[in-house]
Amino acid sequence: MTLAHGRDHLAIPGPSVIPSRVLGAMHRPAPNIYGGALVDMTESIYRDLATLAGSRHEPLIYIGNGHAAWEASLVNVLSRGDGLLGLVTGRFGLGWAKMAEELGARCDYLDFGTRSGVDAAELEATLRADHAHAIKAVSTVLSDTSSGVRNDIPAIRAAIDAAAHPALLMVDAICSFACEPFDMDASGVDVMVTGCQKGLMTPPGLAFVFVGDRALEARASADLVTPYWDWVPRREPTMLPERFCGTPPTHHLFGLREAIDMLLEESIDKVWLRHETLAEAVWAAVDCWGASDDARIGCHVPDKARRSHAVTTVMTAPGDAQRVRDCCEAATGVTLGIGFAVDDSAPDAVFRIGHMGHLNPPMLLGTLASIEAALLSLGIAHGRGAVDAAADVIARYQESGTR
Ligand SMILES: *Cc1c(COP(=O)(O)O)cnc(C)c1O
After folding, report:
1. For a tag on the chain, would you pick the N or C end, based on fewer CB atoms within 10 A?
2. Which atom of ligand 1 is least distant from the CA of 68?
């Protein structure tokens, strides 16, 4: 039996829900790409993205997804045979470093598992042992979307500095940008990559690379660079198409402009606080489900300080996660994120709740209540009161303006 006749809700960790305002802004005739409103508007997007990232430098914008941003960043800083140290806290941290290896870098990996984030002391020791400074760059993710772990970027920077190592710090903030606090220049980040389809609430198709001064210097000697991905011509355009090495993504830019307006109207600090509050509401609910003696459900990352504010990875008994996802989709119209195998759990024991971007309490509470209905109807053991617990978190925010 299904009650899923209404607006479906996509609760996967990207792409995220697209606001009606963004869809509306994209619904327009094709513009001129050589002059006029599109050109001025696009310049304002570069400026506002730099502000949102806490960067002095405007980003590069590519037509592409997150993987495009990965490649666009790597080929502009690395040469064949350069060392890259990949910090692995899940599938995405691993994937970015693997891409560097396939491009011709020499990669080493520090694998921290999927539950606790990067250990800065171990990173520092590894860098201290690299006397020859063979490691050109360290890559990491802010939040790893597979495990739901959130890394402490300033602590990673501090470890590199403590080792007095010149490696560039490259950060994947694809699921975190405009969801969790991030301040590029203040955190000493040399390269940050993100995309438009998660916190930026725009249909997949735009990739962003933010570049600091030291990364720009590295570009001068990077021999992996190819014409389409090259930062240099895109940074010094004489006409708008040069910024994109061809036709600009016209309608995506109109959509993104609207999405950025929405973020600026709310203010980025409030956007971060909203995500933190909604994440806390999710954790309160999951903790309740796990609180009965026979329950086998819980958050994958034990320490709240290390949990992503954009996605929560939930572990169940084998098969249960798959059944919950199928039931939610069919019976209530809520699509949850698939699980990736984490540690020794099979994918069917993992589901993910995306809570990024265009999301408010009714959307989130509806998702949590739908999961609870699935647990009940499937006869999966769980503790009760989860939706109450989530509502408590939201009520506390309303009363105090904080969590
Ligand atoms: C979504 C995501 C990616 C991949 O982005 P695509 O658009 O699927 O290529 C990479 N890293 C992180 C952290 C992500 O959340």
Report:
1. N
2. 9
